[in-house]
Write a structure and sequence with these properties.
Layout: H1 5-9, E1 19-24, H2 30-40, H3 44-59, E2 69-72, H4 77-83, H5 87-99, E3 102-103, E4 108-110, H6 122-129, E5 133-135, H7 138-141, E6 145-153, H8 157-166, E7 173-181
Parallel strand pairs: 1-7, 2-3, 2-6, 6-7
Antiparallel strand pairs: 4-5
Helix pairs in contact: 2-3, 3-5, 6-8
């Protein structure tokens, strides 16, 4: 693992192969506006486009050459029904297309509907996402190098929780990618 600021978020928390962020995320920035359009204004095209941009970058990076499957961080079915789509899945669609690899939105699911992480402290975020994910098809994911995709990484609590579940599958290697990284 390299020593980028995003890598350091997960040091001692999850054994990741690589991390990547397309942009730094700051409040009142153009990136925040794009993410807001994606999450709250139904602009799924924004997610797919940003995913393609990220995927084009990752396709050129040696560290991501052996990714075998792209998995979006899942939403709880109730939240996904309410929103109409999973924003991370839209990013994953574009990313997988640009990298010419499979995207799988069914083998890893969210089983607990958590409250929003937006205004929570680091510890509260971690508590909020403990044990909320489940693998539905471990045999499909065994021995894969998974690229787990989220929209924005703040403290890394959601991805850490997801990583612990995915890394319990035999032979799994895990990398993460996001559109925005909100540095402290």
């Amino acid at each position: 693992m390299m020593d980028s600021p995003l890598d350091k978020v997960f040091w001692g928390r999850a054994q990741l192969e690589n991390t990547a962020a397309l942009y730094n995320f700051q409040k009142k920035s153009k990136v925040q506006h794009l993410i807001h359009q994606l999450k709250y204004k139904g602009r799924t095209d924004v997610g797919i486009h940003l995913g393609k941009l990220l995927g084009a970058d990752l396709a050129k990076a040696d560290a991501f050459k052996d990714i075998t499957i792209v998995i979006p961080v899942p939403l709880h079915p109730d939240k996904q029904r309410k929103r109409g789509y999973n924003q991370s899945e839209q990013i994953a669609v574009g990313l997988a297309k640009a990298m010419n690899i499979e995207m799988d939105a069914v083998s890893f699911i969210r089983t607990v509907d958590t409250s929003t992480q937006t205004r929570k402290s680091r510890f509260a975020r971690w508590e909020n996402v403990k044990e909320i994910f489940k693998v539905t098809s471990p045999e499909k994911l065994a021995n894969c190098h998974i690229l787990l995709v989220d929209d924005v990484i703040t403290t890394g609590a959601t991805l850490e929780s997801a990583a612990h579940i995915l890394l319990s599958i035999e032979g799994v290697r895990l990398s993460v990618a996001c559109i925005g990284y909100a540095r402290d």
